[in-house]
Amino acid sequence: MVGDSLQVEPYACMIRKNDPKFKALVDGVITGMMKSGEFEKLYNKWFMQPIPPRNQSIGLPMSKELQDNIKAPSDKPAT
């Protein structure tokens, strides 16, 4: 990464259309990870800690929008 972040970009998990059962499964897994703390643990592993094999760190703290979404999971984008 070069320089500071200029803006927050909401991202999504792409899933197939018109499959409410699959969407419910994906939503449930991600929500469970957010509630259990596993989501933050994985975020810290890949965005805050050194990454092998070069042990470089991205050093990108979690945005307030993502922190808020973890506290109250939703399938709506951050505003």
Automatic annotation (TrEMBL):
Q: What protein does this entry describe? A: Extracellular solute-binding protein (Family 3)
Highest taxon of the lineage = Bacteria
Transport listed as a keyword: yes
GO cellular component, alphabetical, reads:
extracellular region; outer membrane-bounded periplasmic space
> Which InterPro entries does the record associate with it?
Bact_solute-bind_prot3, Solute-binding_3/MltF_N
Q: Which residues form the Solute-binding protein family 3/N-terminal domain?
A: 15-48
The entry assigns this protein to a family as follows: Belongs to the bacterial solute-binding protein 3 family.
- Region Disordered: start and end of each range? 57-79
Asked if the keyword Signal belongs to this entry, the reply reads yes
Per UniProt, what is one Pfam family of this protein?
SBP_bac_3
Q: Which UniProt keywords apply?
A: Signal, Transport
Q: A single GO BP annotation from the record?
A: amino acid transport
| Native source species | Melaminivora alkalimesophila
